Amino acid sequence: MKAISLLGSTGSIGTQTLDIVAQYPDQFQVVGLTAGSNVEMLAQQIREFRPAIAAIGDAQKLPELQAAIRDLDPQPILLAGEAGVIEVARYGDAEVVVTGIVGCAGLLPTIAAIEAGKDIALANKETLIAGGPVVLPLVQKHGIKLLPADSEHSAIFQCLQGVPNGGLRRILLTASGGAFRDWPVEKLSQVTVADALKHPNWSMGRKITVDSATLMNKGLEVIEAHWLFGLNYDQIEIVIHQESIIHSLIELQDTSVLAQLGWPDMRLPLLYALSWPERIYTDWQQLDLVKVGQMTFRVPDHQKYPCMQLAYAAGRAGGCMPAVLNAANEQAVALFLEEKIQFLDIPRLIEGACDRYLVHNHSTPTLDEIIAADQWARQEVVTASQILERSMIAV
Ligand code: NAD
Ligand code: MG
Question: Ligand 1: which of 37, 204, 206 to mutate, judged by most atoms within 8 Å of the beta carbon?
Fold first, then answer.
């Protein structure tokens, strides 16, 4: 029996993780749950999974949560706000913490879990992208395992089992191509929020679905792969594979290439992050290559999707630049979802923030510097978007 805590339990990653726990009650037990603001779903999850502790990020909703589970006996410890989420992350005897929070809001809770000696099943890529320079040394110091739950990184991790140190030569990250892969570039200026939220292969939260449409998700995954697998950026490549059957590939020193395949189903990488190094039998749909029929591969189009190269540049610049890129992207995506900016403004605003940050950057930032860079980038994007808005009104 493995004890786990789950941050972001009401989201796409969170609910799929709980599906796994419900399916394997003899293997996994929930110690702690956290959610941002969805009291109703969190209360229902507390009833079903009976954690010892739970937290709601939106502190104003704590009374509502308390009322919703008043009749439960025994009562879990209930906390609120960022401090509450952090407390759940480090609480008790959970062996693994699944990070299903979206965005850099996951950074401090993830650090707290690492400092408490817990292994991390990492879905929340933004934490590693922004915090890599401080997270990696903490992983070493506390001797914990960073188990990738992102499907591409899980594929690479699975392929790497049994590969000796120094055996890895190159990573090939596959990308579905997102919602607009078949749209001509001229049409991208007319994209609506509803269009961007239609992912062809995966059902995910809103932010990552927009990231998939801009292909920033793949750019972020390049930086994530750099931190997880220690390769430099010239050794990490992107290939468009619209069927999403090959979840990524590795090339070894002798040019042999290994891949991991499966239907697009996030439960598989989540289960492996929880069960590693064991393999658990499932009754999930088995891969049928004849049904797949064909698999296609294309080079990514950097004209149409500038976000990938922005991410490579930020990764190569290092220091706080990935934190700036990530925060600028989070802010720009939030503004797009609020219909305050256009789809094509997303890369423009990110590029502007990265260009303006360049002068401040240095290679070994502290946690405080990373957090300051994140805050700075969000403000930069808001200010730049207001200038954009005014110029549009003027036109
Ligand atoms: P989601 O929006 O569906 O869920 C996010 C969860 O985080 C929710 O439970 C929400 O309540 C919580 N949350 C949001 N802001 C918070 C805050 N400030 N404080 C505390 N909790 C907060 O997102 P998702 O699609 O599940 O993605 C979660 C993470 O996993 C992201 O980093 C994403 O990139 C990564 N990821 C997701 C998928 C997927 O299939 N959904 C695949 C790969 C990686
Ligand atoms: Mg992914």
Answer: 204
- Cβ-Cβ contacts under 8 Å for 344 (sequence gap 6 or more): 188, 189, 191
Q: Which residues contact 273 (CB under 8 A, 6 or more apart)?
A: 96, 98, 121, 122, 147, 148, 149, 154
Residue bearing tokens 């952090």: 86
Instruction: Label each residue of 27-89 as H, E or C.
Output: CEEEEEEEECCCHHHHHHHHHHHCCCEEEECCHHHHHHHHHHCCCCCCCCEEEEHHHHHHHHH
Q: Return the number of other C-beta atoms located less than 10 Å from residue 280's C-beta.
A: 13
Tell me how far the alpha carbon of residue 150 lies from the centroid of ligand 2, in angstroms.
5
Contact between 233 and 222 under an 8 Å Cβ cutoff? The reply is yes
Query: pLDDT value at position 142?
Result: 98
Q: Which ligand is nearest to the CA of 13?
A: 1
For 141-162, the pLDDT digits (tens) are 999 999 999 999 999 999 999 9
Q: CA-CA distance, 156 to 225, in Å (whole number)?
A: 9
Query: Do residues 216 and 199 lie in contact, with contact meaning Cβ atoms separated by under 8 Å?
Result: no
Ligand 1 centroid – CA 56 distance (Å): 14
Task: Tell me the CB-side half-sphere exposure of residue 249, using CA atoms within 13 A.
Answer: 19
pTM above 0.90, yes or no: yes
Q: How many CB atoms lie within 10 A of CB 351?
A: 18
Question: How far does the centroid of ligand 2 lie from the alpha carbon of residue 127, in Å?
Answer: 14
Ligand whose nearest atom lies closest to the CA of 38: 1
Asked if 170 and 251 touch (Cβ cutoff 8 Å), the reply is yes
At residue 191, the 3 state secondary structure works out as coil
Output the ligand 1 site: residues, CB below 6 A.
8-14, 35-36, 38, 57, 85, 100-102, 105, 123-126, 150, 202, 204-205, 208, 266
pLDDT digits (tens, 9 = 90+) for 195-222: 999 988 888 999 999 999 999 999 999 9
